[in-house]
Amino acid sequence: MTSIAFIGLGHMGGPMAANLVKAGHDVRGFDLAAPSLELARQNGVATYPSLSETVSGAGTVITMLPAGKHVISVWQELMDAVSAGTLLIDCSTIDIDSARDAHALAAAKGCPALDAPVSGGTGGAAAGTLTFMVGGAAGVFALARPIFEAMGRKIIHCGDASAGQAAKICNNMILGISMIAVGEAFVLGEKLGLSHQALYDVASVSSGQCWSLTTYCPVPGPVPTSPANNAYEPGFAAGLMLKDLKLSQTAAQTTGAATPLGAMAAQLYQRFADEGVGEKDFSGIINMLRDKPDT
Ligand code: NAD
């Protein structure tokens, strides 16, 4: 089995690389942050002082980085460090243009490539239960599937280059909008004297049912495992939701798609983040809706 080089060993990349080790892969890792490297070493990842040493001889390189500019910068550096034929996979959530640029870099070098963003958060990364949404040629997807299976449970081929990022951006736009919708319904219910539990009992088995209600209920009580029961500790931080909503709005502007609710959701999450609570779970936006209705 050829080795896998993993670049970006943060909250997501760290546990993902650890799961590749657990599955029996020879994993090499690189990150700019010393604490991430140390943790990776403890999990059985071999670390190197530079990107080029990390990827040298690896059959596959995976990147899990904050944003498009980091991915492009690392992939440009990779082009001098890997040989043609090396499988390149980016699992970061990034803008569509950067994803396409990354595919173009790989094609020019003769490297098969996939965009493969994930959902499932840090819990899913640790448990190896992530969902991978993958863009790229079908043959390359088939080649990479066993690698994804070591880190995830659902692996979906969405189409050609950048289709994985497109699916991720669209899914998270639904999520951002639906969380605001559920929050608004609970706030209106409160004003009408309706208990949280009664609204939950009805909506969770009626046409208002959705993930934001039944898995991530934004009020404490009805779903004991939701972040609302833990002072809105993430979970999925509001700042990350804002990042993904901004990506959806960039894509909407580029393509001319009408996404008025997506635009409004991005504005509301921007305001939430501006209040200094971007580190809190994104479901905490209900408190802004309740306490500052004029915002
Ligand atoms: P993170 O900030 O914890 O990790 C990113 C890592 O990349 C950091 O350790 C950083 O040091 C490293 N890095 C940055 N530039 C680098 C470079 N040039 N070379 C090597 N390492 C570099 O972020 P995260 O939470 O792990 O998220 C990573 C990606 O996954 C993001 O695109 C994010 O949107 C996406 N994502 C995150 C979650 C989540 O719940 N955290 C869920 C789904 C998707």
TrEMBL record:
Residues 3-159 form the 6-phosphogluconate dehydrogenase NADP-binding domain. It catalyses: 3-hydroxy-2-methylpropanoate + NAD(+) = 2-methyl-3-oxopropanoate + NADH + H(+). Pfam families: NAD_binding_11, NAD_binding_2. One of its GO terms (molecular function) is NADP binding. Residues 163-289 form the 3-hydroxyisobutyrate dehydrogenase-like NAD-binding domain. The active site is at K168. Keywords: Branched-chain amino acid catabolism, NAD, Oxidoreductase. Its EC number is 1.1.1.31. It is an enzyme of class 1 (oxidoreductase). Gene3D superfamilies: N-(1-d-carboxylethyl)-l-norvaline Dehydrogenase, domain 2, NAD(P)-binding Rossmann-like Domain. InterPro entries: 3-OH-isobutyrate_DH-rel_CS (IPR002204), 6-PGluconate_DH-like_C_sf (IPR008927), 6PGD_dom2 (IPR013328), 6PGDH_NADP-bd (IPR006115), HIBADH (IPR011548), HIBADH-like_NADP-bd (IPR029154), HIBADH-related (IPR015815), NAD(P)-bd_dom_sf (IPR036291). GO terms for biological process: L-valine catabolic process. SUPFAM superfamilies: 6-phosphogluconate dehydrogenase C-terminal domain-like, NAD(P)-binding Rossmann-fold domains. Pathway: Amino-acid degradation; L-valine degradation. Belongs to the HIBADH-related family. This is 3-hydroxyisobutyrate dehydrogenase.
